[in-house]
Amino acid sequence: MEVSGPEDDPLLAQLHRVQCPVCQQAMPAAHINARPAAAAAAGGASPRSWGEAEAPEEEEAAGDADGEDDAGRWDADAGAAAFGAPGGRPRAPAAEEVRQLLEGKPLADTMRPDALQDFVGQGRAVGPETLLRSLLEASEVPSLILWGPPGCGKTTLAHIIANNSKKHSIRFVTLSATSAKTTDVRDVIKQAQNEKRFFKRKTILFIDEIHRFNKSQQDTFLPHVECGTITLIGATTENPSFQVNAALLSRCRVIVLEKLPVEAVVTILMRAVNSLGIQVLDSSRPADPLSHGSNSSSESSVLIEDKAVDTLAHLSDGDARAGLNGLQLAVLARLSARKTFGKKGGQSYPPSRVLVTESDVKEGLQRSHILYDRAGEEHYNCISALHKSMRGSDSSAALYWLGRMLEGGEDPLYVARRLVRFASEDVGLADPSALTQAVATYQGCHFIGMPECEVLLAQCVVYLARAPKSVEVYSAYNNVKACLRGHQGPLPPVPLHLRNAPTRLMKDLGYGQGYKYNPAYSEPVEQEYLPQELRGVDFFKQRRC
Ligand SMILES: Nc1ncnc2c1ncn2[C@@H]1O[C@H](COP(=O)(O)OP(=O)(O)OP(=O)(O)O)[C@@H](O)[C@H]1O
C-alpha cells in the first residue's frame, strides 16, 4: 500500500511542508511535533509531550513496547513499522485501520498511562520534588485518599502504582465501592492477612469511589489499615472531610488532584492522536485548493485540525476522559460519514481522506462539557460562589454562577429557594421588597419550569446583587440564638406583666398585671420586655447576654 504524494493531495502537500529533521521526509503523524495553539500560548506542555512516540525508552518504561498490558493500544512506532511503505518510509494508517483501533474500547482506557513519567500535570501532587513521588519511586506507598474531579487521573495514578507494585511483588487488589459489598472487603482483608502471615507479601487495596461506602463499611478496613495488613488507596470526587470516616482519614495521606489545565489535556489528546497515527493539520496554513487531485489509493488516512484538538481540550473542562471520548466520537463519526466527505471549508479533498474539524468535535461535547455534579461538592461550590457574588454586588459574576448551575442541570427551584433566603439574610431591611421579588421568582419558576424560568432567576439574581445590603436583622437574630444556646440552667420565665390572662385564675396569679397597653399612651412608654436577668441587653449591639 502506498501513500499518495503531495502533488496529488492538498492535505498531504500541507503536511509535507513539515519535514522530519532526521530523515528529511514528510513527518508521519507519529513524528509530527504539532503543537495546538492552547498549549503553545500557555507554553506549559513539557517538550516530551510533543512527539512522545519518538522516545522508545519512555515507551519501554511505560510497558508499551511489548504491548503486553495494552491490548488494543496503538503504538505509533510499531504502527509505523507495520504500515511501512516501500523504501522503509513509515506512513499514516488507513482510515479503516484507525476505525478498528477506535471501535469497541474507550480510547481513555486504551491511553491510560502505566508509568509515572507519562502521567501528565498534577505537579503539586506528584511532581518531581514531592514527597509522594519519592515514596512511589521507592515503592513505599502510604495509605492514600486521591481526591479530585472526574477524569483528572485518580484511577490512572492508582493504575501506575499497581503497575509499579507488581514489580515489587506487592499485591494490588481493586474494588469499586459502587458494586462491592462488605463481604467482598472482608474477603480481601482475609486474603491480605494470609499473604502477610505466610508469604510476607504486602497488599494494596484500591477502592474507587470510596465515598459511596457508608461509614460502617469504611469502618471494616480501619483496623487493618492501622495494623498494616492493607495499604488503602481510595479515590473520590467528593470532599473526603465529609465523606470519609475521620478515623480512616487520619490514617491516610490526602492527595488533592486538580482539574487538568487545558495544555495538559492537549498533551494527552496529542498523545492519543499520535498514537492512532492521525495527522494534525495546521489550520493557519490552508492547503492550496488548486493543487488538489484525486487520491486513488485505498489507504486513506485521518487528519485532524489543530484547532479541533485545542477546542476539545477547552471543552473537556479539565476532564481527560471527556476529551479522549470526544476525540474518539468525533473521529468515528467522521469515519462513518466518510462517503459524504467532499467539499469542506471551500476546499476539496480526495474521498479516501478524512478530516476531523473543529465543528465535528464541538457537536458532541458542547453541552456535556459543563462539569456540574448536582449532588456533590460542585453544587455547593457554585451556590456559594453565587451567594458571595450577589453579596459583593457583582451582578455579572452572579449571573455567571447562575448560568453554570442552570446549564449544568441544577434544579431551578433549589436556586430560587436560595434567593429567597438571600433576600432576607443579605438584603434584609435595606430593601424589604427584595423578599417579595425572590418569593415571586420562586413561584414563577414553579409555574413555568425550565428553560423559560431561567430569565426569572437571572432577573432576581441581578436585582439582589444590585440591591443595598443589610445584615442587621440576620446578625441580631444570630445573637439571640447564641444567647439561648449558651444559656446555663433553666431559661428565665416570661415576665408576668407580658403574659396573657384569659382566665380569672391567671389574673389572680398576677398574669398581665402592670402591663402598659402602648396605644393608650400618648407619650413613650417605659416598659421592660425582656426577662429580668436580660434586662438592658440589646441584641443589635451585643452578642453575649
Ligand atoms: N494526569 C493524566 N495523565 C495522563 N492521562 C490521564 C491523566 N488523567 C486522566 N488521564 C486519561 O483520562 C482517562 C480517565 O482518567 P482517570 O480514570 O484516571 O480519571 P479519574 O480521576 O479516576 O476519574 P473518575 O473520578 O471519573 O473515575 C485515563 O484513562 C487516561 O487515559
UniProtKB/TrEMBL annotation:
Q: What compartments host this protein?
A: Cytoplasm
* Region (Disordered), start-end ranges: 38-95
In Gene Ontology terms, what is a biological process of this protein? Answer: innate immune response
Q: Where is the composition biased (Low complexity)?
A: 77-93
Q: Which reaction does it catalyse?
A: ATP + H2O = ADP + phosphate + H(+)
GO MF annotation, one: ATP binding
Does the keyword Cytoplasm feature in the UniProt annotation?
Answer: yes
Assembly information from the UniProt record:
Forms homooligomers, possibly octamers. Directly interacts with POLD1, POLD2 and POLD4. Interacts with the N-terminal domain of WRN. Interacts (via UBZ4-type zinc finger) with monoubiquitin and polyubiquitin. Interacts with TRIM14 and PPP6C; these interactions positively regulate the RIGI signaling pathway.
What's the protein called, per UniProt?
A: ATPase WRNIP1
The protein's organism comes out as Bos taurus (Bovine)
Cite the source lineage: Eukaryota, Metazoa, Chordata, Craniata, Vertebrata
